[in-house]
User: What shape does this take?
Amino acid sequence: MKLSACIVVYNGYDEALKAAQTVLHCTRRYPVTLYLVDNASPDGSGKKLEQAVADGLLAAGPGQQVVVHCRTENGGFGTGHNMILPELDSDFHFILNPDIQLTADTLSDLADWMAAHPDAVMARPSLVFPDGKPQQLPLRRCALRPMLYRQLPRLSFWKGQNDHYLMLDEDLTRPIEIEFCTGSFSGVRTSTFKAVGGFDESYFMYVEDADLTQKMRTRGKVYLVPQYTAIHAWHRAAHRDLKPALWQTGNLLKYFHKWGFKW
Assistant: This one.
């Protein structure tokens, strides 16, 4: 079985380097090609990553390959990931954020699980903060009330809607079908990912992972597989700054237009 993984980078060389190193260090059971796509980082992260490969800081092990692409313009998250679509010849592909760190052979584990479940076209593991605290991420389709609550937690009367969005009313200690697979860590069946055309590039940033999940669900099922775990720093820029929040809002409207409004 062949694996591939892609990390799209925009600034933050040190974090991206650490993420890439953990992928190479932990993924041992199957051959893996790791793609690093730099989205024209002003801080020179792309060239630094190329140098890290040349200097051996990103040393590929047996059966491993590291490919760095430096884009000349920032086309957004989805465009960066789609850049490598023509190159993919793996069985399973992993979409990873630069703030992900592996502590086990999670890529191989998820690939094995998906191979044993032919209906699975997309899956993700449990994610935890660097201190080990579990993260609660959306698992049901995007809906307006929980997303507003997550931006404005003073709307406490909608907390129940957010709990439903997080599927807290379900047993999340076992594999379970979900409707939203976060782009911070997603495993996809490569043939299906290519068949749906990858990400919709009209989403520059935010909600593109929710859109991709719905595209993948037209071809099969999407799962949370909680027995496997990875670290996710989860910077949550949209919850801190106005501009990312506006991007997220605009993309949510685009998503609702495409997939139907959910209150």
About this structure: The mean pLDDT is 93.
